[in-house]
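User: I'm curious whether this sequence folds into something compact or stays loose and floppy. Could you predict its structure so I can see for myself?
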Amino acid sequence: MARFFKHIPILLLFFPVFSLSQGFGLDKGAKFQKVPFQLVNNLIVLPVEVNGAQLSFILDSGVGTPILFNLSGQDSVQINNVREVTLRGLGEGAPIKALGSTNNLLRIGRAKNPGQSLYVIMDKDLNFSPSLGVTIHGIMGYELFRDFVVDINYATKVIKLYDPQHYSKKYMRRSEILPLEIENRRAFVDGEVLLNGKSPISVRLLVDTGSSDAIWLFPNAAKGLEVPKKNYDDFLGKGLNGNIFGKRTMVENFRWGSHSLKDPKAAFPDMQSFDSVRIKRSPERNGSVGGDILKRFNIVFNYSKNEMAITKNRHFNDPFQYNLSGVELIHAGTRLIADRLTDQKPSLDEAEGKSFGNVQLLMDGGTRLSLVPEIVVSSIRAGSPAAEAGLMEGDLILAINGKSVHRYKLQEVLEMINEGEGKRIKVVIERANKDLLFSFVLKELFKPH
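Assistant: Here's the prediction. I'll summarize afterward.
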């Protein structure tokens, strides 16, 4: 049974195609491009250069044209041939205005597209950096999968981009080939789910590297996809047009190919969050398979052959992770903290490399001032241990079980506060300029089958 759930907004977007990009290719003489990536909350974060600006993108196979957002921290990013467009996507809000741009140079190492189309969203609310704890400037997906054979090694956190025309099948002997269906620039795979003690149900799922969840399922009583009785209402993520809500639960088993995964977490989104026109284009789609399952395999996507090769990796038997505390956290601004130094007269060289913040000021009295991110409670699940203990949205987290949280990454803090069933958590928070201590015991949400 899982121990904790690391939640971030899930971005699933559907965009109009206003121009066809020239396409990605490798520099002359290059056989492939190797790209190290960060794996943050089951999401792949890639370094991408846009017209010379160094940015970070989520690799999201559910997205067509690349999108830029959260550019306020950049000195400048040049975009070419700009015009205003209207975008529609998941969420409860209305369509939004954005900028469409063509003939941009996108480069990932020796892989480049000199005629790339993209969108720019200026809305500051569309920003995933606070929830991930790392800076994210945009998302991209389909065009990389279209133009390359994409070999994702989730275990070593490396992607290799191969030219399909010169790629020889070097799938590992233990790999299993699954058929992919490419429809409307998205890839679908078949699988089976077991829920409510009934027979396995065949499902057609979007392969979505941009989802941090394991499985999303669309409620369909006729097909047997009914929400298990044990569930809770929750915010599932943020789409282009607003928030997505639904129910979180567990299914008894998920199977694709010969591989079965027991007790994966699942979400059933409220279907009003989806554009009905888009759903009609994929009437047989039953949901999505996301990063919490994908990361358990090393995967080679070969869109040109309509297939993917999956190989179990060391994450295969990792427990699925649920939010036992009921607390969601984000980075929200910065604050100054003061630490007393052991050496009363440290040199600048001695202090370098030991910084845990972005800025340090060394004072004569042996005090170090550091500018560190604030970790704030963004939401609390009703009836959860944290809610019953008295934590509130907006509380500033200072320490967990005696550990100052500014020394840790956001995802590490989420792990601390969701350590395991029966674990007592002591949280020091700041509220209204007062430090308060709360204590609660973590409880399992669902019993494993």
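Summary: The chain has three domains: 25-164, 176-294, 327-441. The helical segments are 129-132, 142-147, 276-281, 291-294, 348-351, 385-389, 410-416.
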